[in-house]
Design goal:
Helix content is 63%, strand content 1%. It has 15 helices and two strands. The chain has a two-stranded antiparallel sheet. Helix 2 packs across helix 10. The model has no long low-confidence stretch (mean pLDDT 86).
């Protein structure tokens, strides 16, 4: 009994460390910056429209989110947060691939076929910048491929539907992901980033590091603080015009979760909109919020019940395979 309790305490310590980390899928520093950005954006928008700033209007906008905080959908997100924190970390270790392994295999293959590549005559800072960009693009294209497949292939959609069953969006919705969905994702991204790393290092002819902050690629780090925590939120913060075709704002991702058929399978990227633009899945958000509804059609089971979120996707995936 004592070893079990000690193991759980260690897990709690790890979870607390993740919450306080400088960068990650969800951390308290990121959430704090996201809240400040949302408040600043709402205040500036009200100032532009009214020519003055009234704190009461802003307060009502924030207080109006109480139905989000106390909804059953948010409670289900919280349950999934603990499931991911305490169980998924072990499952990810089952990944068939790692980016390092994919890169090493690719490098051996390239050396065997084409021979060694002469080192490029570039300063170290330039190589680091180039590898940082290459790995960021590798992650982004891997994310898009994985996401596109999960919206187009019924077997994969059966697992990914768990994420879309959220009826309100909060930063914790990022954890509302079926374990097998996560397992597929980490393998696809490992393949994409491993290939990007292997190709760049072969071209460079020598090892290189990346620019990182808090253990995260500097571009991903910026995305965590500026965009990611607001993608699953009720704050309508759109990018339009050319910026809205290059980068995915929080409103882009809210359209992705919309129940409106006009928004199905749109905005599948992570931070970059260029893949959606290239492959015809981009929907640029409007200036004003269209008052979206979120979720998916549930014919029978309660979308927020644990069995629906964990067991039903497996049953539906098997049924999809049989068809």
């Amino acid at each position: 009994m004592l070893p079990f309790l000690l193991h759980q305490l260690d897990k709690l310590h790890q979870a607390a460390a993740l919450l306080l980390a400088p960068a990650g899928i969800f951390t308290l520093p990121e959430a704090g910056v996201a809240f400040i950005l949302a408040v600043a954006y709402l205040a500036c928008r009200h100032w532009r429209r009214r020519g003055r700033f009234r704190p009461g209007v802003l307060g009502r906008a924030l207080v109006g989110s109480r139905h989000v905080v106390f909804s059953r959908s948010t409670r289900a997100d919280l349950v999934y947060y603990f499931i991911n924190t305490f169980a998924i970390s072990g499952l990810i270790g089952w990944g068939l691939f790692s980016a390092e392994t994919v890169s090493a295999v690719l490098l051996r293959l390239l050396h065997g076929v084409f021979g060694a590549h002469a080192p490029v005559l570039l300063p170290d800072w330039m190589l680091r910048a180039g590898l940082t960009v290459a790995l960021f693009l590798g992650y982004e294209i891997g994310y898009y491929i994985d996401h596109y497949a999960k919206h187009k292939i019924p077997f994969l959609w059966a697992f990914h539907q768990t994420h879309h069953s959220a009826e309100v969006l909060t930063p914790l919705t990022v954890f509302r992901v079926h374990p097998l969905d996560t397992l597929i994702f980490v393998n696809v991204v490992a393949m994409a980033t491993g290939i990007a790393h292997g190709l760049f290092i072969y071209w460079a002819g020598r090892p290189a590091l990346i620019y990182a902050v808090g253990g995260a690629n500097i571009f991903a780090f910026a995305g965590y603080y500026l965009v990611s925590q607001l993608q699953h939120s009720q704050f309508w913060m759109p990018l339009r015009g050319l910026p809205g075709r290059l980068l995915l704002s929080p409103s882009h991702h809210q359209l992705h979760h919309s129940t409106d058929p006009a928004h199905y399978n749109c905005n599948l990227g992570s931070l970059l909109a260029v893949w959606d633009w290239m492959f015809g899945t981009l929907v640029v958000p409007s200036k004003d919020s269209p008052r979206l509804r979120f979720g998916v059609e549930q014919k029978a089971n309660d979308p927020h019940r644990l069995s629906t979120l964990l067991v039903d996707p497996v049953v539906n995936a098997v049924a999809a395979l049989r068809k």
